[in-house]
Specification:
Blueprint: H1 3-58, H2 63-83, H3 85-111, H4 119-139, H5 145-158, H6 164-169
């Protein structure tokens, strides 16, 4: 292979990593937003149902209704423990930040660092970047369908992922 062809292939792969990181970070941030919402909803429902069941227990109202409210409170609390939405929120949020950091590092490599490197060094760096991406994909939670669709819409329709300087160059 000719040197120019190798450099073009390296640049293509770097751009693939950047695009993959863009989709992954946005997908994880959208998934984090969804899990944060469900955490608040379930926490609020749990607190309200516990308070309401306590009111019913200490009042002279029907024991049937106080039992129903207590059972529903238990169910909501079980959902909080079982689903653990706060943990999923934190995991998706951290993954989103990790993919953004990798995207930024990869972009700096493409735009600045690679221009002053020999081909062998560029190949070593691209292998490290690819390995980092693969590792992050391995330990990140899967992105939900909602997060994926919303990220795709933001990137492909809204085109809000470009910096102003990149828009001016076109």
């Amino acid at each position: 292979m000719e040197n120019q062809e190798i450099i073009k292939d390296i640049q293509k792969e770097v751009k693939r990593i950047i695009e993959d990181c863009e989709y992954s970070s946005k997908g994880h941030f959208d998934s984090a937003k969804c899990w944060r919402y469900w955490n608040y909803v379930l926490m609020f429902a749990s607190i309200i149902s516990v308070c309401f069941s306590l009111v019913l227990v200490y009042s002279d109202l029907d024991k049937f209704w106080s039992g129903i409210v207590a059972i529903s409170s238990g169910i909501v609390t079980m959902l909080l423990v079982f689903l653990n939405p706060q943990e999923k929120y934190i995991s998706h949020y951290n993954s989103g930040n990790g993919f953004l950091a990798l995207r930024n590092k990869t972009r700096v490599f493409l735009e600045i660092e690679s221009k002053a490197m020999e081909i062998e060094m560029q190949m070593r760096v691209i292998k490290k970047l690819d390995s980092k991406r693969n590792d992050m994909n391995g330990y990140s939670l899967p992105i939900g369908e909602y997060g994926y669709k919303n990220a795709k819409k933001q990137i492909e329709i809204d085109k809000n992922t470009q910096y102003q300087v990149d828009k001016e160059q076109k």
